[in-house]
Design a protein that fits this description.
alpha/beta, D-Maltodextrin-Binding Protein, domain 2, 2 domains, 4-stranded mixed beta sheet, 19 helices, 15 strands, disordered N terminus
Length: 562
């Protein structure tokens, strides 16, 4: 009897175990099935790659991107509406400015309520991508969903890979010739004529022009400018220092004046004798009142307001493009007065036009977070920008025949070849709500930029002549003075590991801030370049400049050796 009860008990235990096992197995199958079902439903809404609309039923995506003064409202913009109708993807926007995007994006990513897409900005991928997985890996997804992008970026796809070998963002392609020589200085030729002087070619001639201008117009601004990072290459010091050293590409994530010499060693130009001598020269300009106090702190919009005063108070204007400060159509006379001058020859014969050769392709144009339910659709949406139609429509408007035309008969491009397209709705720095202008994903390779129809006899003082003005000015005034890479050169976009970022995060901020503050102090006389220079160098070492450069060196060697 006892034996029978024991057998029954064992059978009951066995039955219970089998039941629990079945429940457990059933639960896993159900979870997997649900996951597969969700993935399947996401795939089911897609139309074939390359067809529009992208989806069979509308979807919505949240996008974090930049706001621009010349784009009134992305939500109601004509191109936004066109894009929604064409793709079936409705966008809701969260925006930030050039000045606060990093802080704002980091704050958003620290919550559990971040958007599906980050567009235009480059987040800290070592932290948010490689380590935390907030941004998803795109290697296979790009291959399967972005034929236009894959073709356009070609061999440059490796530029977008992070230190773990994976891709977390779609690259920006803006192989813009004049952008690679964007450290330009423009002079008001009306004032040169009044002064009876020619455009300066040396630092001494520049000094004399500024001196006479201030004597004739003591309330004028001989040299305009903005605070570092406040405008597109509108910091006057960078241009002037090119007569003493190579001014590096400080528009990247590191702004501490780092560059590489001919042997592959990274150093800080802000610690060199050339930098010191350049600051002495700039101080001499400051001492005669040629440097406006506001140049050290003002925004690009504030500089624009100054430039457009009726009495034309600004003689020399540093900027990548004059259109950022003056509207060719609304203020044609003022616009026509400015032209580019070549870099100045310094006392030791140094004469550099910084050639930012790595600016054509960069990572960070478009990234997808793990919140996105439709990553394939998001990438196919982005792939539209990498078509000729998509790039033109985003920049100039989507009305073919009204905003632009393809293959205009008898027209030639900037490169002298048959034109690929002609722009009818020209770029404007004034606020409008028809297109995205520079907010769009950058998809402009060299052949595209140089293929725009241009009349060789176009009036460069009009908005229609802007591209030709920038191209010809760069070709004639800048390219002949590009740096010799066997001496000093600019750095490529460096990919750092999360540990490397953590190691230099505080150091980088402190060094950058101290270099910028000390530069102003040396120029304005708050610090002496004779008695305080050694202390300045020691302070940089205490802050960890050597550590910072060491991390850059490791990253550079890692990338170059690949």
């Amino acid at each position: 009897m006892r034996h029978t009860k024991r057998i029954l008990a064992l059978l009951l235990c066995l039955a219970l175990a089998l039941s629990l096992a079945a429940c457990s197995t059933g639960g896993k199958s159900q979870t997997a099935s649900a996951s597969q079902s969700a993935a399947g439903s996401a795939q089911d809404i897609l139309n074939p790659v390359g067809t529009y609309p992208i989806v069979k039923e509308p979807i919505e995506l949240r996008v974090f991107t930049i706001s621009a003064p010349n784009v009134e409202d992305l939500a109601t913009n004509d191109f936004t509406k066109y894009l929604e109708q064409k793709t079936g993807v409705k966008l809701t926007f969260e925006t930030a400015t050039r000045d606060n995007w990093e802080e704002k994006l980091n704050l958003v990513l620290s919550t559990n309520d971040y958007p599906d897409i980050v567009m235009w900005f480059e987040p800290d991928m070592a932290k948010y991508g490689v380590k935390e997985g907030i941004f998803i890996q795109l290697d296979d997804l790009i291959k399967d969903n972005m034929p236009n992008y894959t073709k356009m970026i070609g061999d440059n796809l490796s530029v977008t890979r992070q230190t773990d070998g994976h891709i977390y963002s779609v690259g920006s392609i803006n192989d813009c010739y004049h952008c690679m020589y964007a450290k330009k200085m423009w002079v008001n030729t009306m004032w040169l004529d009044k002064l009876g002087m020619k455009a300066p070619t040396t630092t001494e001639e520049f000094y004399q022009v500024c001196k006479k201008f201030m004597e004739v117009n003591p309330n004028g601004i001989a040299v305009g400018g903005t605070a570092p990072g406040a405008g597109w290459h509108s910091t006057f010091e960078e241009w002037l220092l090119n007569s003493y050293i190579l001014s590096p590409n400080t528009s990247q994530s590191f702004r501490d004046w780092s560059e590489v010499d001919g042997s592959g060693k990274i150093f800080s130009a802000a610690t060199t004798d050339g930098y010191r001598e350049g600051l002495k020269y700039i101080k001499s300009l400051y001492d005669i009142g040629a440097i406006y106090e506001g140049d050290f702190t003002q925004t690009e919009e504030q500089l624009k307001t100054l430039v457009n005063q009726p009495d034309e108070p600004v003689l020399f204007l540093p900027t990548g493009t004059i259109s950022n400060h003056i509207d060719a159509d609304a203020n044609h006379e003022l616009y026509s007065h400015y032209s580019v001058i070549a870099p100045l020859k310094g006392p030791e014969g140094v004469q550099n036009a910084t050639f930012m050769k790595y600016s054509g392709v960069s990572s960070g144009g478009f990234a997808i977070t793990d919140k996105c339910k439709y990553p394939e659709a998001a990438l196919r949406w982005a792939d539209y920008f990498y078509t000729t139609e998509g790039s033109l429509s985003a920049q100039f408007g989507a009305d073919a025949g009204k905003d632009w035309v393809l293959n205009p008969a008898g027209k030639v491009g900037l490169n002298g070849e048959p034109a690929l397209y002609e722009v009818l709705n020209q770029y404007s720095g004034e606020a409008q709500n028809h297109d995205w202008q520079d907010v769009s994903i950058a998809a402009r390779p060299a052949y595209f930029r140089l293929g725009e129809a241009v009349d060789p006899n176009v009036d460069i003082t009009t908005s229609a002549g802007l591209e030709y003005l920038l191209y010809s000015s760069s070709k004639e005034k800048m390219e002949p003075y590009a740096q010799d890479p066997t001496k000093n050169d600019v750095l490529p976009e460096l990919k750092l590991t999360e540990e490397e970022v953590s190691k230099i995060q505080t150091i980088g901020v402190e060094v950058e801030k101290y270099i910028a503050e000390s530069r102003v102090a040396f120029i304005t006389g708050q610090k002496s370049l004779d008695t305080d220079w050694d202390a300045y160098l020691k302070d940089l070492e205490k802050m960890g400049l050597s550590t910072l450069l060491g991390v850059y060196q490791t990253a550079y060697d890692r990338q170059v050796s690949k």
